[in-house]
Specification:
- The chain is built from 3 helices and 10 strands.
- The relative contact order is 0.24.
- Strands 1, 2, 3, 4, 5, 6, 7, 8, 9 and 10 form a 10-stranded mixed sheet that branches.
- Helix content is 19%, strand content 42%.
- It is an alpha+beta fold and 197 residues long.
């Protein structure tokens, strides 16, 4: 989830972001990327429709910190640092990165807005790098933000997962280019399995 990177040559719009570019369309999942002004790191957006699903079950899956190791392909550790209510937390995540790159970790605030009727929900995520002392063996993610947007449409749930982060340190281009597409794609595959259980 957290090592999000891609060098982009797209021209930024006045809003600071370019148009979305479809990078992968497979297994009912679409992954898009776009450049962000002032950053060499692309933002991604992954989209899926979960058939015969209830929004509350999807919301439980994407906010269940203890289950992040099953949701995010590269997550090797996740724990709640502060449980403010059912869907709002401050939590820690460690991300596995292929050798010889150093693993990453991060602290994140998670805030949820649930429509009173239960038809939509938005989970907003942002990095809180100073919330926990750094582990000198890891690289701390200091800049990151994103959202999960969930919408109940009949018996299905539309899911949009959007995220941008600066991975910090030195990361090879081949790794950043693959991670920004493969990791969110794998996340959506895992989400489908978790919700179907």
């Amino acid at each position: 989830m957290i090592l999000i990177a891609s060098i982009s040559l797209l021209t930024a719009l006045p809003t600071g972001k370019s148009e979305w570019s479809l990078k992968k369309d497979q297994d009912g999942i679409q992954v898009y990327t776009r450049s962000v002004e002032g950053s060499a790191i692309d933002e991604f957006k992954a989209v899926i429709t979960l058939d015969n699903a209830q929004l509350i079950d999807v919301l439980n899956a994407v906010t269940n910190v203890s289950g992040f190791v099953n949701l995010f392909p590269s997550c090797t550790e996740s724990k709640v640092l502060e449980q403010q209510d059912r869907y709002n937390t401050v939590h820690y995540i460690r991300t596995d990165v292929p050798f010889p790159v150093t693993d990453r970790d991060g602290v994140y605030e998670q805030r949820t807005k649930l429509d009173p009727g239960g038809a939509s929900a938005t989970v907003t995520i942002r990095a809180l790098p100073d919330r926990l002392p750094e582990n000198k063996k890891l690289v701390r993610i200091t800049q990151a933000s994103g959202t999960w947007t969930l919408t109940q449409v009949g018996n299905n749930v539309n899911v949009v997962y959007q995220f941008h982060a600066e991975p910090g340190g030195s990361v090879p281009v081949w790794l950043t280019n693959s991670f920004i597409v493969d990791d969110p794609f794998g996340t959506m595959q895992n989400l489908r399995k978790i919700v179907a259980r």
